[in-house]
Fold this protein.
Amino acid sequence: MSTLVSRGVGTAGGMLGGLVAGAIFKQVWKLAAGKEDAPQATSEEYGWGEILVAAAVQGAIYGMVKAAIDRSTSRSLHQATGA
């Protein structure tokens, strides 16, 4: 039962993390680049440098948010179940 709960919480946390990370990235990109939207990898109007920097920043933010949510849910489940 605890594995099932853990998986459900992990899935919900992953979805929430994706939304939070996306919102954070959008704000960071606005501040850093002064542009409303980050470049898409398939966009012809941006060069390699800007596309790769945007992808690296987005990945770093997602990784940080995911780690924070995973850690938080793991500790909460441990405290709630003792396992």
Q: What stands out?
A: The chain has two helices and no strands.
